[in-house]
Amino acid sequence: MEAVLAQTGLPKALIEAAPDAVPEPTLIVDEAQGLIERFQAGELDLLLVNDELRTDELLKKGIAAGAAPLFHQEVVLVGPPGDPVGVHSERSLEGALRAIVTGDAAFFRCGPCGVRAREEAIFATARTLPRRGSPFMEVGRTEAEVVKAMRNSPAYGLLSRPTVINLMKDQEWSLKPLWSGDALQVDTYRLVSPPDAKWPEERRAAATALRAYLASDQAKTLIGGYGRETFGQPLYRPGAAKLGEGVRF
């Protein structure tokens, strides 16, 4: 599973709440790109990842047989508290990103992480956006490295909603949430499974049982309430977001 998701504790909570009939899986944590590569190599029986473009490619190539949306969150556009290019005054996410690109503002990003995958999907969908230039800088592999870089040098960037909520809880004021709620920012975690022919027979039954549980009403209820006790609001919404709508919490 993807690293930020693992850090929230949700996967562990889901496994602990599973019925006895569901065998306990071995959880593998990596950034989104690394997980995709492991799945392609046949190392994973199931893949829970937030990488829309690469997951669609797995389906097209027949490497994956299914990719069911389990839950979603959003990536939040953050930046310096002073907002030097006026992102907050824009009326859409596309307008905000255009202001960053045309203003040659520094934009920090991670390399193989899920948020970077969402960035790529946003720019692939919003084709009228200008081409990203050198101010879009890769500063590490993880979201934590992006946050660290922003503390040392003012910049814009995309962060997952759980990361932003954690930062606000810890009263982190070196960056400010500037834009959220756009349909382009929806970040969906899908449970990807291989074709039956590529699924090791001895592990197929266990993986099938886990997949059924994760799609159950019991799991959806847990997902929909997870984080409320700690943060006063859930971190994720079960299932897929409504088409064309942003995340609503």
Summarize the structure.
This protein is an alpha+beta fold and 249 residues long.
List keywords for this structure.
249 residues, 40% helix, D-Maltodextrin-Binding Protein, domain 2, alpha+beta, 11 helices, 8 strands
Q: How would you characterize the overall build of this protein?
A:
It contains eleven helices and eight strands. By secondary structure, it is an alpha+beta fold. It has two domains: 3-72 and 187-238, D-Maltodextrin-Binding Protein, domain 2 (3-Layer(aba) Sandwich), CATH 3.40.190; 73-185, Periplasmic binding protein-like II (D-Maltodextrin-Binding Protein, domain 2, 3-Layer(aba) Sandwich). Strands 1, 2, 3, 4, 5, 6, 7 and 8 form an eight-stranded mixed sheet that branches. The longest helix is centred in the last third of the chain and has 14 residues, at 201-214. The relative contact order is 0.21.
Tell me the structural class.
alpha+beta
The arrangement of helices and strands along the chain is HHHEHEHEHEHEHEEHHHE
Radius of gyration: 18 Å
Instruction: Return the CATH architecture of the largest domain.
Output: 3-Layer(aba) Sandwich
Give the beta-strand count. Answer: 8
Going by CATH, the homologous superfamily of the largest domain would be: Periplasmic binding protein-like II
What's the CATH class of the largest domain, please? Alpha Beta
